[in-house]
Write a structure and sequence with these properties.
Organism: Microbacterium koreense
Distance between the termini: 47 Å
Helix content: over 70%
Protein name: YtxH domain-containing protein
Number of strands: 0
Structural class: mainly alpha
Strand content: under 5%
Largest sheet: none
Length: 120
């Protein structure tokens, strides 16, 4: 109950302070924000972030898919049930290592992008 009361009070205070500042001040803040957002250095960083997100979004799922295909192929090869199981388990272990490597590379790319952004 205490959290709900705090939330209601916070909303009320925000409404009162916001209405005192008014629409005009809001428009001033918005205009300044858009000027900053549309500057070349900010847009360069936005583009870098988009590129990183695209590559990160593709790296791990692609590796997962390839690993699943390898496990399926290993499980359906000729041989005894035990041999197929062993092959599928080995392919699964190899796939897990590949996924971990892809995730690590994505994390390193993110760190590199963050370092570059910090130095810009």
């Amino acid at each position: 109950m205490r959290g709900k009361t705090g939330l209601v009070i916070g909303l009320a205070v925000g409404y009162v302070l916001g209405s005192r500042a008014g629409r005009e001040r809001y428009e001033q803040i918005r205009t300044q924000w858009l000027k900053l957002w549309n500057t070349e250095p900010v847009q360069k960083q936005v583009d870098k972030a988009k590129d990183l997100a695209k590559s990160a979004a593709l790296a791990v799922p692609t590796t997962l898919w390839e690993s699943a295909v390898k496990v399926t192929k290993a499980a359906t090869t000729k041989g005894t049930a035990g041999e197929r199981l062993d092959a599928a388990l080995q392919a699964g272990k190899d796939g897990a290592a590949d996924v971990a490597e892809a995730a690590e590379e994505t994390a390193e790319a993110a760190k590199s992008a963050a370092d570059t952004r910090g130095g810009a």
